[in-house]
Amino acid sequence: MSEVRVGFVGAGAFANAMHYPDLAEMPDVTIAAICDIDEERLAATANQYGVAARYTDHRRMLAEQDLDAVYVVMPPMGLTPTVLDCFAAGKPVFMEKPPGVTTEETRQMAEAARRSGVFGMVGFNRRYADVVRNARERVLAAGPPSMVMAEFHKNMLHEGPYYGLSILRTDIIHVVDAMRYLADGDSVGVHAYVDRAYAEWPNSFSALVRFDNGAVGILAANRAAGSRYERFELHGRGVSAYIRAPESAEVFTDGVAQPMALTAPHPNPRLSYGYYAEDRHFIHCVRSRQKPLTSLDDAVRTMELVDAIEGRL
């Protein structure tokens, strides 16, 4: 295909901050249609990107527009039926995390994609962040990992969880998925504590995870912390990476005191946090019909690990 024609379901703040500008910068992509139930928001986004095809019903958009793929960027509560409609129309779908409210919804979408011969991709952008990806490559080049640590803290003492759902599932899932990616394996055992730190809702998660390759994962995520802080460690055979996501990382090798320093190529979080790279990967997969790195099938395993940490398994 000479160009990839993309339709959007969702014209909210996050989509406008990340995915619309990403695709608008790609010469081989056309934003062909936009759907949003908020007509004012729809008009503002469509005007900004010069899109004439505007809808308040995504089913009409799918029926009337010749699209190669669809972005569904919306809260998780109504995500699954919309994505299923796209798969039924034979369209690959990009969606943000979490991929549904429950693991069962994620499985349902993954199965529907397979039946329709298309794929779904989930926006676990940390896997595409330049610093995270490069640090991982350097550690795994020396051999299998032995330990990974993931920290993700925020101060949410004066607000509730997003959408009234589990903060682990709607937000901390980012680093749960990144922990799986860095460990290069799938979990086979979990010991976890879920606490209410100065709040009425579960906001503190501590977990010890055994992966199938023998690596151990350690998760620490607290929403009653002093401020936002995100950090990873990855240890392998004589090599360790200390990652301050997404800005920088230090890689120490074989006892050498001076580390290799990695820095993000651009300070804009749309680039440094991997959003542009994940969008580029999605477009590549649409063109090549390859399965994405963060496919729905893989996302099921991340959701299952979330379940295990929450004690649902």
Question: Quick summary of this structure?
Answer:
By secondary structure, the protein is α/β, with parallel strands linked by helices.
How many domain units? 2
Give the structural class: alpha/beta
Largest sheet: 8 strands, mixed
Number of helices: 11
Average predicted local confidence, pLDDT: 97
- Report the principal-axis shape: globular
β-strand number: 14
Strand order of the largest sheet: 8-9-10-7-11-12-13-14
Strand content: 25-35%
List the helices and strands and how they pair.
Blueprint: E1 4-9, H1 13-17, H2 19-24, E2 29-35, H3 39-49, E3 53-55, H4 58-64, E4 69-72, H5 79-88, E5 93-95, H6 103-116, E6 120-122, H7 130-140, E7 147-155, H8 167-183, E8 187-195, E9 204-211, E10 216-222, E11 224-235, E12 239-244, E13 248-253, E14 260-263, H9 269-272, H10 275-288, H11 296-310
Parallel strand pairs: 1-2, 1-4, 2-3, 4-5, 5-6, 7-10
Antiparallel strand pairs: 7-11, 8-9, 9-10, 11-12, 12-13, 13-14
Helix pairs in contact: 5-6, 6-11, 8-11
Mind explaining what this structure looks like?
It is a single chain. This protein is α/β, with parallel strands linked by helices and 313 residues long. The protein folds into two domains: 121 residues, 3-Layer(aba) Sandwich (Rossmann fold), CATH 3.40.50.720; 156 residues, Dihydrodipicolinate Reductase, domain 2 (2-Layer Sandwich), CATH 3.30.360. The chain contains eleven helices and 14 strands. Strand 9 and strand 10 form a beta hairpin. Helix 6 runs antiparallel to helix 11. The longest helix is centred in the middle third of the chain and has 17 residues.
